[in-house]
Design brief:
The chain has 584 residues and is α+β, with helices and mostly antiparallel strands. It has 3 domains: 1-137 and 169-307, Thrombin, subunit H; 311-421, Roll (Ubiquitin-like (UB roll)); 426-583, no CATH class. Helices cover 16% and strands 43% of the residues. The protein is built from 11 helices and 31 strands. The strands form 5 sheets. The chain has a 6-stranded antiparallel barrel. Strands 10-11-12-15-14-13 form a 6-stranded antiparallel β-barrel. The protein has a 5-stranded mixed beta sheet with strand order 22-31-25-26-29. A hairpin with a 4-residue loop joins strand 23 (444-453) and strand 24. Helix 4 (146-154) packs antiparallel against helix 8 (387-402) and helix 7 packs antiparallel against helix 8. The termini are far apart.
């Protein structure tokens, strides 16, 4: 396990801050087929080695204002292995002039042909590196508006990362040169990254202890940890250019997020793996050297000697009361990526330490601490050994926080406790009845609910639902069910009103849970909504024209909850039953 440290070793600082000789550069207009040059990269250990290349041509306008230099490489292991993932960023020189960074290739090649990102494009996109992270209010894409994110979170469903980031960062077949090293992930954990230009290389068995760190100079190997602590996951690539404290890497994006804040570590290369598909280097971090600040299409950039802010995550796993395992992690702080990392780390932790078959129930308690806000309380339960459901729930709640459009959520820490029990803790709502079908305003309505476990054994519990004096005379619906079923039924059709991060926190803390049974008294009201506010007393003809706020399919009467009661069961609850009542 790599220690969680924010202190840069003095020796590393002394090495990385020494004056770097800035090489002259060569523009794309000066490059023509047949020119030959050399590149610098690490194939083994920490030693920077030379490889050769010949220019095949220049692909111009592969994107607006973008070109790619095509080269055929040779030397080192490349004849046998082909181009290696992890070579991304390797500086390429012709006649001693820097032309760019080796950055792309194709799968199943017969010859080692690849692309070089012109250095002018890297310098242009990455020239303004902020001294401190410059996070602004998170951008909410038009198709992922706040109510959609929040409603998905209340249902415990994450919005896919590829949908949030868009097709421009999706992986094109075989061209990805971003290997992610660390723990070997389960297929379910990998699904959280579906559609993104990353490949997972399980290298957890390789130890970096005693490994020689490559020099902090062009051609040196570097890794960018997304997760560190009791689980490692890092993006690996090569340093292209250093000027003072500025450092450029990769020659392509990590996730194309713009402003980022991530550690940069020097690395060693224990070896490489040859593949008929895409060969790749194995990489292991050695020591922190700086912080990544920019992530753009032409590369990534950071500052040597800087430190990155990460999100602390603690996970406790109680194995049936017999023993408790405690794990600590630090995660990338990003509105888009952090929720997926939280879900992935939780899923990987549970899949590693709980049973894969048989009867077992998982209950989760925890919180997300935010600066300036009340902690968000987390509570969920699954009785079917599906750790992915717990991971999706925690990830979805985190998404609702990080993707709010009002202010940057400063997550001070996430704490999760999961208890695994050797039993099947599930309860079905088998029936509901009341002692009377007519109830007066201001009265208490006893509600009898029949609960049934998976063995068919039944028990009866009682709700006491207060019928408020403000309720309107007429028909009402009594809905009894678990939190997720009630959310799907949408008993309160009024628009969700949000104007701040505090509103998001309040709604998440008041959410219905799947380990309780709820009894909701619902009435229908005529009216319409406009910009999050209900318009009372509106004529039906006008209501039909306006419809409901944010839903073009509805010209209907709206429902609202007028009374509720909760029955804590501490078991997973499933089912929904509705009864019609008359309020006098």
């Amino acid at each position: 396990m790599r220690p969680l440290t924010k202190i840069l070793p003095l020796l590393v600082l002394g090495v990385m801050l020494h004056a770097q000789a800035i090489p002259p550069t060569m523009s794309v207009s000066e490059i023509h087929p047949g020119m030959k040059g050399q590149g610098r990269t690490v194939f083994k250990g920490g030693k920077i080695e030379r490889f050769d290349f010949e220019v095949l041509g220049v692909q111009r306008n592969i994107a607006p204002g973008r070109s790619m230099i095509l080269v055929k490489t040779s030397g080192g292991p490349l004849l046998d292995s082909g181009n290696l993932q992890g070579m991304s960023g390797s500086p390429c020189y012709i006649e001693g002039k820097l032309i760019g960074a080796f950055s792309s290739g194709w799968a199943f090649q017969k010859e080692p042909v690849g692309g070089v990102t012109p250095i002018a494009e890297m310098l242009d996109q990455l020239k303004e590196i902020p001294d401190t992270p410059a996070f602004k209010t998170p951008l909410i894409l038009p198709k992922v508006e706040p109510p959609k994110v929040l409603k998905a979170a209340l249902r415990g469903e994450m919005i896919p990362l590829a949908q949030l980031l868009g097709p421009e960062v999706a992986s094109s077949e075989g061209a990805s040169f971003i290997p992610l090293f660390g723990t070997e992930l389960s297929s379910e954990a990998k699904d959280l990254w579906q559609g993104l230009p990353v490949r997972f290389m399980g290298a957890g068995a390789l130890s970096a202890s005693g490994g020689e760190a490559s020099p902090v100079e062009p051609g040196g190997m570097a890794v960018i940890p997304l997760v560190q602590g009791d689980m490692d996951m890092s993006a690996a690539g090569t340093i292209t250019y250093i000027s003072g404290k500025r450092i450029l890497l990769f020659g392509h994006q990590l996730f194309a997020l713009g402003a980022v804040d991530l550690p940069i570590w020097s690395a060693t290369v224990p070896g490489y793996v040859s593949s008929y598909n895409l060969s790749f280097k194995l990489a292991q971090p050695v020591a922190p050297i700086g912080a990544l600040r920019l992530d753009r299409s032409a590369g990534v950039a950071g500052l040597l000697g800087a430190e990155a802010k990460l999100v602390p995550l603690r996970i406790g796993v109680n194995l049936g009361g017999k023993r408790t395992l405690n794990f600590r992690f630090e995660l990338m702080d990003s509105p888009f990526i952090t929720p997926n990392l939280v879900a992935m780390v939780l899923l990987q932790t549970l899949n590693t330490h709980i049973r894969g078959q048989g009867f077992q129930s998982l209950s989760l308690q925890g919180n997300i601490k935010l600066a300036g806000q009340n902690p968000i309380q987390l509570e969920s339960m699954v009785a079917d050994l599906h750790a992915g459901r717990l991971a999706q729930y925690v990830g979805a709640i985190t998404q609702a926080v990080t993707l709010n459009p009002y202010e940057k959520a400063n997550i001070e820490g996430i704490s999760l406790n999961v208890k695994a029990e050797e039993r099947f803790d599930m309860t079905l709502i088998a029936g509901v009845r009341t002692l009377k079908a007519r109830v007066k305003r201001g009265e208490v309505l006893p509600v009898l609910v029949t609960l049934q476990n998976f063995q068919g054994i039944r028990e009866t519990a009682t709700f006491n639902v207060n019928v408020p004096a403000a309720a309107k005379p007429g028909k009402a619906t009594l809905m009894v069910g678990d939190g997720l079923s009630l959310l799907a039924a949408d008993p309160d059709e009024r628009a969700i009103e949000l104007s701040s991060l505090g509103d998001v926190v309040r709604i998440l803390n008041g959410a219905l849970r799947n380990n309780h049974a709820y009894s909701l008294l619902v009435q229908t009201q005529a009216g319409a909504g406009l910009r999050g506010s209900r318009i009372e007393g509106i004529p039906p003809t006008v209501s039909n024209l306006l419809g409901s706020d944010g839903d073009s399919t509805t010209n209907r009467l709206q429902r609202r909850i007028v009374g509720r009661a909760i029955l804590p069961l501490e078991r997973e609850v499933r089912g929904l039953v509705s009864l019609e009542l008359e309020i006098e």
